[in-house]
Design goal:
One of its GO terms (cellular component) is extracellular region. The chain has eleven helices and six strands. It has 368 residues and is of the alpha/beta class.
Length: 368
């Protein structure tokens, strides 16, 4: 909190101007605090994002074949202008905070946004799609943009980028940008445990290996296209999500331990796979980002972080509402700043802000 006391403003300064000046100073102080200080010889020109609904900033908006859309109220109620942009949150999502903290820009736009300006290409765009996963079946079931589909969009983006900034600058952006990859949640929670389709073919350790094979091929292709700084988010504690507690936690909505155990097993395998890729890829900095443990701590010890509710979302009953069930007719909690979760699957903007600031502080040096 920033307190303004005994500031040396002239006594004749109009109150409206004084109010504006205070707000401006507050914004400058907060903004300066937020931006990560990079070494003088290091540049991160852009943030390029692949993934699912955790980082999707609106690529599903015009995909009428999927229910994984949220470009309607109350989503985005705390976004600039209260606008529902297609972000699965009450406000910003992790991709936005990463770009903001790095001092690149305030928001990472969806690549498929029909109003995307050419000038945005050089500082980064988002290819993520709500409902996507490492497993092709996951994306297919949700009619989301698959891994290969997101890579195709990235290749198309590179052609457009060359047309805007030229070959040399494009190569610089490719080599120095931060690539953010967030998949796995839908594979584990939906494709394996909810629909149980993959349980007919695999026990979970074998399914995790299947996911890792798909993920590894994706990272190899991304590296082959020029990516070097790749941040790979772990699976979160999925058994703690309000929806999973409602569906599989019994009458008391307890944490679903076997789903959390599955996420941890996958994460362990993912971490080892990334170590192997780094060993084999020259100049690569593919970094495993542990989201599981810091988010688990916030959920379990929510009161320590200033929240009042850690097991339900702000939207509706908070137990099952997500996407279509969270709509303009659904009642909301009085104050989403008191909630860890916005809907039954996605954290609030407040939690994302806290997480990203912590994660960048912990991992950024590994990319430099």
């Amino acid at each position: 909190m920033v307190l303004f006391m005994k500031l040396p403003f002239p006594p004749h300064l109009p109150s409206s101007l004084l109010h504006f000046t205070l707000l401006l100073l507050f914004f400058i102080v907060c903004k300066t605090r937020a931006v990560v200080k990079l070494p003088p010889n290091v540049s991160v020109p852009a943030v390029l994002v692949f993934g699912d609904s955790i980082v999707d900033t609106g690529n599903n908006n015009n995909n009428l074949g999927t229910t994984a859309r949220c470009n309607y109220p109350p989503y985005g109620k705390d976004f600039e202008g209260g606008k529902p942009t297609g972000r699965f949150s009450n406000g910003k999502v992790p991709s936005d905070f990463i770009a903001e903290e790095l001092g690149i820009k305030e928001y990472v736009p969806a690549y498929l946004d029909p109003h995307l300006q050419p000038g945005e290409l050089a500082t980064g765009v988002c290819f993520a799609s709500g409902g996507a996963g490492y497993d092709p079946l996951t994306s297919q079931s949700a009619s989301a943009i698959s891994l290969s589909g997101q890579l195709d969009l990235f290749k198309e983006y590179l052609g457009k980028l060359r047309g805007v900034v030229g070959e040399d600058r494009t190569n610089f952006i490719l080599a120095n940008s931060l690539y953010v990859v967030v998949f796995g949640s839908n594979d584990i929670s939906n494709t394996y445990f909810l629909s149980r389709v993959r349980q007919l073919q695999y026990d979970f350790p074998t399914y995790a290996d299947f996911l890792l094979s798909s993920a590894s091929n994706f990272f190899k292709e991304l590296y082959g296209l020029g990516a070097r700084r790749i941040a790979v988010f772990s699976a979160p504690p999925l058994g703690c999500l309000p929806s999973q507690r409602t569906l599989a936690g019994g009458l008391e909505r307890k944490i679903v331990v076997n789903i959390n155990d599955a996420a941890k097993l996958f994460n362990n395998k993912l971490s080892k796979e990334l170590d192997s890729l780094n060993h084999n890829f020259q100049d690569s900095r593919i970094v495993y980002i542990d989201v599981y443990n810091p988010l688990f701590d916030i959920i379990i010890n929510y009161k320590k972080y200033g929240y009042k509710v850690g097991d339900k979302g702000c939207c509706g009953t908070g137990t099952i509402e997500v996407v279509l069930l969270c709509n303009r007719f659904t009642p909301l909690c009085p104050n989403d700043l008191e909630y860890v979760f916005w809907d039954s699957f996605h954290p609030t903007e407040s939690v994302y802000r806290r997480l990203i600031a912590s994660l960048l502080g912990k991992y950024l040096d590994k990319f430099l």
